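Sequence, please.
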């Protein structure tokens, strides 16, 4: 399957642009060079939109309300200039369409997807229209129906594995993430057509089930044994999946621990010192708060004594005057009339507690009469009490000094902590706040991942014990079920059919497993070979291996240790590219390869190797590469010179519309 041309009409920044990909050389290689924002990535989107109705690589998001691709607002699909032209010419509607022209074994397929819009509201009119024009070698044309077009696309370029035919090179960095690895096995199965064998196996399993149900209808006991066996079998499969998930989590935890170690790199002390520094900062905040409270308390003390101090001289003179009056006898003793009355009533002195005889009671009655008769004297007596309280300021100095001592103690503590914090920051400040925070975060992440790894390793051990028990139980129940089939073989013909189907399924499963293992081994071998050519470190990396879940492992050439997690971004990108090329080669899948931003993170030293390898591959496979000007460096342009590749295209932006600047060999 070759890509013949892409025609974009009013699609995003392409107002009316067509790129053709004629094979004019032995190398089926095409180079597109465009600056960021000009629209090279939108060629990927144009292909995807035309074939599948979506745009997996669209940027320009206006507003994001969630992680789901359907929950984002994107820039409009249509070209803004096209809307302006439609308004200017009075058109009530305008259209957007992309045509992808493909060729396979002499038959061409022109697949077109079209949007129509109202000019006034910019709203879409109806649904997308998907059409296809087929032309065979004799020039005969036909127009498949909608469902047939979808079948054609799925036959040549299945949506589920499209990322192996046309993808954004920047995504190569996340190629071996957990999410990606879960899709690789299924994708390889489709590309290598192992899924066809899976379908046959599934179909034979359904036929077995039908025969089994018919046999079991005459044997309830057999049905019960089958259900027990199937349940344990399902439990065993689920346990194997749980173990696989745990192993994946352990692998990811180990990867994260390595990444954290690289960030820490002997700087553990930064976290401890930074922790102490932050603790000092918290202490300083608390001490400053305490000091503020003490200062407010000192102000309250001053306020409390301020009026007393201010009126001290006046109150002292008043007190002295009253005392002199009392001394001269012009004022009666400072007794309360109530106290005198109580003493008279009880015949007991309220002051000394002594007994009062009649003569003493008479004197008290006389005193009470004089006091009641001389109200002014009583008032002066009351004033004397208030004045005495007002001149009592002896506690002022002691209260004030105590509070000042507390404040000075806090000030000294603050100075000590500030000096300690200053010394700590002097020892770590040169590393910068960002570096300190990174190390602290890395230490915490490492701790959490080590705990996760330990817990999962314990869980893994328990699960393996449970798996062994389930396998033993499954084998036992399987034998019991098979024995029951023989005992309850009431329908000889059905049993023959059942056994034949069972044997056929076993053969198909065996073929599937052998083929899958062979494909996996060949992909690993080709990946190793291609990666060796791509990478400049000839004495560093050895072979590549793939386990049954397609977890990729890269081993050091001499130590034999796994080293995928220690690869640089550039090396991981080249390994992902080698893996993709290996899938194409081993599966024999005849499809073009379109890569946007293929060497964004590839260092200069690896770029020439990259170009040489892809040039060799292009002799048997069509390859389209979309570079930025900086990516299309001297190392690459020397290999992809215009006398070797089939075409070289430059794209430029003019008035917000992308145009072809130069085209040809």
């Amino acid at each position: 399957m070759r890509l013949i041309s892409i025609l974009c009409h009013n699609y995003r920044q392409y107002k009316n642009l067509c790129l053709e990909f004629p094979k004019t050389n032995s190398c089926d290689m095409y180079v597109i060079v465009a600056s960021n924002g000009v629209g090279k990535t939108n060629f990927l989107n144009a292909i995807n939109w035309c074939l599948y109705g979506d745009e997996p690589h669209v940027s320009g998001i206006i507003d994001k309300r969630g992680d789901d691709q359907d929950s984002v607002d994107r820039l409009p699909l249509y070209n803004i200039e096209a809307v302006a032209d439609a308004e200017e010419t009075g058109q009530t509607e305008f259209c957007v369409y992309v045509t992808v022209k493909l060729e396979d074994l002499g038959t061409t397929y022109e697949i077109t997807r079209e949007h129509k819009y109202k000019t006034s509201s910019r709203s879409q009119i109806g649904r997308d229209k998907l059409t296809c024009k087929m032309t065979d070698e004799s020039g005969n044309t036909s127009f498949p129906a909608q469902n047939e077009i979808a079948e054609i696309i799925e036959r040549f370029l299945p949506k589920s594995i499209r990322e192996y035919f046309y993808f954004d090179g920047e995504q190569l960095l996340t190629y071996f993430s957990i999410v990606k690895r879960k899709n690789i096995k299924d994708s390889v199965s489709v590309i290598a057509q192992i899924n066809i064998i899976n379908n046959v196996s599934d179909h034979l399993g359904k036929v077995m089930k039908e025969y089994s149900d018919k046999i079991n209808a005459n044997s309830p006991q057999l049905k019960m044994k089958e259900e027990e066996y199937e349940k344990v079998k399902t439990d065993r499969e689920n346990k194997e999946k749980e173990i696989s998930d745990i192993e994946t989590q352990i692998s990811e935890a180990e990867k994260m621990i390595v990444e954290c170690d690289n960030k820490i790199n002997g700087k553990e002390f930064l976290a401890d010192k930074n922790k102490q520094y932050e603790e000092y900062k918290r202490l300083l905040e608390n001490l400053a708060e305490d000091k503020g409270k003490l200062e407010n308390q000192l102000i309250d003390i001053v306020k409390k004594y301020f009026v007393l101090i201010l009126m001290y001289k006046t109150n002292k003179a008043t007190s002295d005057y009253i005392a002199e009056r009392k001394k001269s006898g012009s004022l009666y003793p400072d007794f309360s009339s109530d106290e005198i009355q109580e003493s008279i009533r009880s015949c007991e002195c309220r002051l000394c507690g002594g007994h009062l005889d009649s003569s003493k009671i008479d004197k008290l009655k006389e005193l009470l009469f004089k006091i009641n008769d001389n109200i002014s004297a009583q008032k002066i007596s009351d004033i004397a009490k208030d004045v005495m309280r007002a001149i009592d300021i002896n506690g002022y100095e002691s209260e004030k000094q105590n509070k000042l001592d507390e404040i000075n103690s806090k000030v000294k503590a603050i100075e000590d902590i500030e000096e300690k914090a200053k010394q700590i920051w002097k020892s770590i400040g040169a590393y910068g706040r960002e570096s300190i925070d990174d190390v602290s975060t890395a230490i915490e992440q490492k701790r959490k991942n080590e705990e996760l790894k330990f817990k999962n390793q314990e869980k893994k051990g328990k699960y393996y014990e449970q798996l062994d028990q389930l396998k033993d139980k499954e084998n036992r129940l399987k034998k019991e079920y098979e024995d029951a089939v023989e005992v309850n073989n009431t329908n000889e013909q059905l049993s023959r059919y059942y056994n034949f189907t069972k044997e056929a399924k076993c053969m198909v499963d065996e073929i599937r497993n052998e083929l899958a293992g062979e494909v996996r081994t060949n992909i690993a071998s080709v990946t190793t070979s291609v990666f060796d050519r791509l990478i400049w470190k000839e004495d560093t990396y050895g072979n590549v291996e793939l386990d049954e879940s397609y977890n990729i492992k890269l081993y050091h050439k001499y130590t034999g240790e796994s080293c995928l997690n220690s690869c640089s971004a550039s090396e991981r990108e080249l390994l992902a590219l080698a893996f993709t090329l290996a899938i194409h080669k081993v599966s024999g899948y005849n499809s073009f390869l379109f890569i946007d931003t293929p060497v964004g993170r590839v260092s200069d030293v690896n770029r020439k190797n990259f170009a040489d390898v892809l040039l060799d591959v292009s002799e048997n496979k069509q390859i389209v590469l979309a570079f930025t000007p900086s990516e299309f460096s001297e190392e690459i342009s020397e290999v992809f010179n215009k006398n070797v590749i089939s075409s070289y295209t430059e794209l430029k932006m003019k008035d917000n519309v992308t145009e072809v600047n130069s085209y040809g060999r």
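The longest helix spans residues 433-487.
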